Amino acid sequence: MKMTEKHLQTGDALPPYNGRLRLFAMRFCPYAGRCVLVLNAKNIPYDVVYINLTKKPEWIFNFSPKGAVPALEYQKGKALFDSNVINTYLDEEYPEYPLQATDPLRRAQDQLVVENFNTVITAYFTAAYNPQGLQPSHPEIFHKGLELLQKELETRGTEFLHGEEAGMVDYTLWPFLERFEALPLGNAEFALDKSNYETLLTYMESMKQLPAVTSNYLPPDIYAKFTDSFVTGSGGLRASEALSTKPL
Ligand SMILES: N[C@@H](CCC(=O)N[C@@H](CS)C(=O)NCC(=O)O)C(=O)O
Q1: Where is the GST N-terminal domain (predicted)?
Q2: Which of 93, 101, 76 is nearest to 21 (CA)?
Q3: Catalytic site residue 35?
Q4: Tell me: the pLDDT tens digits for 22-70?
């Protein structure tokens, strides 16, 4: 449950803690999105507090040393940060709907899939937020990483990377894949062409049907609006403003 749709900023008070897990997030942060998906998929009750990252409220530093999101307040005043650390904790502390592979080898392989995907993320962030900084190697890195991911899907032969049901590895990659629908953002080199990415696009369609995903999904035009505001130099449209165009 969202405590408020507003992104709290410098000077705003910290809402009172009501005993539930509390996730500090920003609506457009894909890392925070990972935790939202895992909390949703595991049916764990939680609250969300959105933070304005350009004018951070002072108290965010009590939960996250660099004031980054996501951070998870698991007890009043006590928090963990970093999406993967938070998600591993959640999966182990709330074992009812396990999302990690039980086989140690498969769990290690899932971690390698996530690790490999980091190069794709870097190329995406450059394309979306800093197109002037794009090197000819970025589209190549982006597609090499996605081709590897597609190959992994083909080798596993299941609907999701985790198996016939989605798991942690799928929810860890998804917030980025969701945003890739907003590419090419004026650069056709980042397009996900159907002829090259049939398996990957089929997988993405399956992901989009999952209740944990649909409840947090935003369409490409909203992402494009948010990232464009950085590119055009306005210093970043506030998340609440970008969202205000979304029919709720
Ligand atoms: N490794 C971190 C990365 C989190 C991250 O980079 N979050 C961004 C927002 S998407 C952030 O809070 N940046 C700090 C800032 O804007 O000051 C994680 O996985 O949680």
Answers
A1: 19-98
A2: 76
A3: no
A4: 999 999 999 999 999 999 999 999 999 999 999 999 999 999 999 999 9
